[in-house]
């Protein structure tokens, strides 16, 4: 089977590609491989003869205007190219809570991406994930306010990027579901506590202040905004085990 991984050089894409390459023909489609979903460059050639397209691309900026222009143009071009190529399954990675975050420009852009897929008439599966452990540093920096950090204490059930890639592999190799599925990590945390744990691991002395009004991608979170529905798939890797590996493999060699 020929599978095109759009964004195959990114965090999740680079974990997914080796899982698929073992038994399938995989084309990595990103600007660095000559495929641009915004200009359309290289898209038709990349998709020719493909059965499945999996979209794990992301906007170069999370700023609302950039993100919405990205997901709209990219989605329209991808859907048109996938239809022209006779693709049988379009898979996309989205986020748990997307429909509950209309005040966030980034999440409105993700909803736009999802809506384009649902309206396309292509067989599809949208996998919605909770925040990746790898992204918690990004959440921390977004809450930075000098020497302190203001982070929402909302509940979150984050997940390891490796587990997202494994779940995506199963979706890619399965039948189109024509609906949204959810994937979450094994444990629930308060976002501010998670932020404090990663700061401690980084040896960063800044203090996290729990602030229910602190924005998350521009939106105020309710306690359950980032919590999945009743039937998510649960991933196995615990945050404490991921953090131990992160300290040993990422932080230690850098010091
Ligand atoms: N971070 C989280 O916690 C989280 C949680 C749930 C869902 N998600 C979703 O997961 C998806 C993947 O995230 P990620 O962190 O793996 O992304 P990432 O590491 O930022 O990678 C983005 C990929 O998109 C490619 N790309 C960017 N612009 C492109 C263009 N115009 N044409 C073709 N490719 C382009 C990049 O390659 P080039 O630069 O070479 O083009 C790169 O391969 C995103 O859609 C995000 O919304 C993220």
Bound molecules: NADP nicotinamide-adenine-dinucleotide phosphate
Helicity level, as a percent range? 25-40%
How would the global form be characterised?
globular
Average per-residue pLDDT, rounded, comes to 95
Taking pLDDT < 50 over at least 5 consecutive residues as the criterion, the unreliable ranges are none
| Estimated structural class | alpha/beta
Task: Label the CATH architecture.
Answer: 3-Layer(aba) Sandwich
- How many strand elements? 12
Order of helices and strands: EHEHEHEHEHEEEHEEHEEH
- Whole-number total of structural domains: 1
| The top level CATH class name | Alpha Beta
In what order do the strands lie side by side in the largest sheet?
A: 2-1-3-4-5-9-12
Number of helix segments? 8
The major sheet is characterized as:
7 strands, parallel
Give an overview in words.
With 255 residues, this protein is of the alpha/beta class. It has helices spanning 13-21, 43-47, 64-85, 105-118, 136-142, 161-173, 191-202, 239-254, and strands spanning 2-6, 25-29, 52-55, 89-95, 124-129, 144-145, 148-151, 155-156, 180-184, 189-190, 207-210, 233-234. The chain has a 7-stranded parallel β-sheet, with helices on both faces. A 3-stranded mixed β-sheet has the order 6-7-11. It has a two-stranded antiparallel ribbon with strand order 8-10. It is globular, with a radius of gyration of 18 Å. Bound molecules: NADP nicotinamide-adenine-dinucleotide phosphate. NADP nicotinamide-adenine-dinucleotide phosphate binds next to strand 4.
């Amino acid at each position: 089977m020929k599978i095109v991984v759009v964004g195959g050089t990114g965090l999740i894409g680079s974990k997914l590609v080796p899982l698929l390459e073992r038994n399938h023909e995989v084309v990595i489609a990103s600007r660095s491989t000559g495929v641009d979903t915004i200009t359309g460059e290289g898209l038709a050639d990349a998709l020719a003869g493909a059965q499945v397209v999996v979209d794990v691309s992301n906007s170069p900026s999370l700023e609302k205007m950039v993100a919405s222009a990205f997901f709209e143009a990219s989605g329209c071009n991808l859907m048109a190219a996938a239809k022209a190529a006779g693709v049988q399954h379009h898979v996309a990675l989205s986020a748990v809570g997307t429909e509950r975050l209309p005040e966030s420009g980034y999440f409105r852009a993700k909803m736009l991406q999802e809506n384009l897929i649902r309206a396309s008439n292509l067989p599809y599966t949208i996998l919605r994930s909770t925040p990746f452990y790898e992204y918690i540093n990004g959440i921390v920096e977004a809450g930075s306010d000098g020497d302190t950090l203001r982070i929402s204490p909302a509940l979150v059930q984050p997940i390891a990027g490796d587990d997202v890639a494994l779940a995506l592999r199963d979706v890619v190799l399965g039948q189109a579901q024509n609906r949204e599925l959810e994937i979450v990590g094994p444990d629930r945390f308060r976002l501010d506590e998670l932020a404090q744990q990663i700061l401690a691991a980084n040896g960063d002395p800044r203090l996290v202040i729990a602030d229910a009004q602190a924005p998350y991608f521009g939106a105020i979170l309710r306690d359950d905004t980032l919590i999945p529905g009743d039937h998510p798939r649960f991933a196995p890797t615990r945050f404490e085990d991921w953090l131990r590996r992160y300290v040993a493999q990422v932080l230690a060699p850098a010091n």
